[in-house]
């Protein structure tokens, strides 16, 4: 196979720039998905990432419980459809469909619950509201599929520098290690390199930024009672707590979004104290709770790039937008960017990287991203705080949403991406 995957291996020095159709910086879920989609369109693609090459999880031996990574995504049916179209879905080593969702206010009477039977269908029963999958497991499946394309090169443990454009395209220096540095050029350079995007900053794309003054605490836990294929989210006085079901019936991934001062207090607790805090916050739905992984906390911030494209350059996924993890839609929003860009590229290959085609992508996705950001910000503000009026509004709202079909459908649509 002529497929080229480079991490630490030796690569003979090359003279001059290697010409590609598209260069992608960033090999997360979004970058890998885009690379496969472009390669499937017979475009020559190179993917560059500073991290390690993704690997499939080791098979579980005997009755030993699997060890899950704490960073997961709630993959929507729309994202699932694209991953199936790219022949990735069946390569995902493990996933957990969730068929029920339950959301409530811990300090009030409001709640909403729905399941697959609540979802309007066109004659085909809905088997799941979505799937909880570890990010590293998705990445491993994506990378495995990408290796089947001889027209796609991958460089891991690699540095991208000297980014610039001219009238004919974009170019950069790829350094798998200093002895192997070479230049690559393409008609289109895509930054899928995350919230602190080098591509975004290199081309002067300014962005709007604000700090939510919240931290997200993530970990994986084992529970006394099985999760029952249910995703649960409790709105506590200091922020939401989500229990997301994993493929072991007694394991869940938790995301505890708390005001920064409260998050610091939770991180200072010993494991037994933190486990008890989770049990109380989730209204004892799972019985006793035991940590399987160390707690990790990170600040929650919103970023929205004011400009997403220029001639021969585009940004995508978290490089263009980051949102509050309230509804777990970050990965789905990025995959929607991919779907739009793939569609536009397929229709405009003759003008790949030109301003006109890239503006079509930018106009479409900026509007959608802003709508999601505004929706999540509205939810965040409504469920953040102890003011009596806010508490009344959100409890009446949840109660009404659970009883009014139109409002309930909106909540279901948000949950399913």
Automatic annotation (TrEMBL):
Any one Gene Ontology molecular-function term assigned to this protein's record: 2-polyprenylphenol 6-hydroxylase activity
Q: Which cofactors? A: FAD
- In Pfam terms, one family for this protein is FAD_binding_3
> Which residue ranges run through the membrane?
20-39
Provide this UniProt record's keywords sorted from A to Z: FAD, Flavoprotein, Membrane, Monooxygenase, Oxidoreductase, Transmembrane, Transmembrane helix
Associated pathway: Cofactor biosynthesis; ubiquinone biosynthesis
Q: Name one GO biological process term.
A: ubiquinone biosynthetic process
Can you give the residue ranges of the FAD-binding domain?
20-373
Fetch the InterPro entries from UniProt.
FAD-bd, FAD/NAD-bd_sf, Ubi_Hdrlase_CS, UbiH/COQ6, UbiH/COQ6_monooxygenase
Give the source's domain of life in one word.
Answer: Bacteria
Family matches, as SUPFAM superfamilies: FAD/NAD(P)-binding domain
> To which protein family does this belong?
Belongs to the UbiH/COQ6 family.
The protein depicted here goes by the name: Protein visC
Q: Which organism is it from?
A: Glaciecola punicea ACAM 611
Q: What gene codes for this chain?
A: visC
């Amino acid at each position: 196979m002529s497929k080229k995957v480079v991490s630490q291996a030796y690569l003979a020095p090359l003279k001059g720039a290697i010409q590609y159709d598209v260069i992608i910086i960033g090999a997360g879920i979004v970058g890998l998905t885009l690379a496969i989609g472009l390669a499937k369109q017979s475009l020559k693609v190179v993917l560059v990432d500073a991290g390690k090459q993704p690997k499939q999880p080791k098979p579980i031996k005997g009755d030993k419980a699997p060890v899950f990574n704490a960073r997961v995504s709630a993959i929507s049916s729309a994202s699932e459809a694209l991953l199936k179209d790219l022949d990735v879905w069946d390569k995902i080593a493990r996933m957990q469909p969730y068929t029920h969702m339950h959301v409530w206010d811990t300090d009030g009477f409001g709640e909403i619950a729905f399941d697959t039977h609540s979802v309007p269908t066109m004659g085909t029963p809905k088997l799941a509201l979505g799937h909880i999958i570890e990010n590293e497991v998705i990445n491993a499946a994506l990378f495995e599929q990408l290796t089947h394309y001889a027209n796609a090169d991958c460089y891991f443990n690699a540095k991208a520098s000297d980014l610039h454009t001219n009238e004919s395209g974009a170019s950069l220096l790829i350094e798998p290690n200093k002895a192997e540095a070479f230049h690559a050029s393409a008609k289109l350079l895509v930054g899928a390199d995350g919230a602190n995007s080098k591509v975004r900053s290199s081309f002067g794309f300014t962005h709007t930024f604000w700090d939510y003054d919240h931290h997200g605490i993530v970990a994986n836990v084992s529970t006394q009672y099985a999760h029952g294929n249910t995703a649960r989210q409790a709105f506590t006085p200091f922020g939401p707590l989500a229990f997301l079901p994993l493929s072991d019936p007694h394991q869940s991934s938790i995301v505890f979004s708390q005001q920064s001062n409260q998050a610091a207090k939770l991180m200072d607790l010993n494991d037994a104290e933190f486990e008890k805090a989770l049990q109380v916050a989730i209204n004892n739905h799972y019985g006793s709770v035991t940590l399987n992984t160390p707690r990790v906390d990170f600040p929650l911030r919103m970023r929205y790039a004011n400009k997403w494209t220029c001639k021969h350059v585009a940004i995508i996924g978290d490089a263009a937008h980051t949102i509050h993890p309230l509804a777990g839609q970050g990965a789905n929003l990025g995959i929607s960017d991919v779907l739009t860009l793939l569609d536009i590229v397929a229709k405009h290959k003759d003008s790949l990287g030109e301003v006109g085609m890239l503006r079509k992508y930018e106009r479409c996705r900026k509007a959608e991203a802003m709508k999601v950001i505004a929706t999540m910000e509205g939810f965040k503000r409504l469920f953040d705080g102890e003011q009596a009026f806010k508490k009344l509004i959100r409890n009446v709202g949840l109660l009404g949403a659970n009883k009014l079909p139109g409002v309930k459908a909106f909540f279901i649509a948000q949950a399913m991406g």
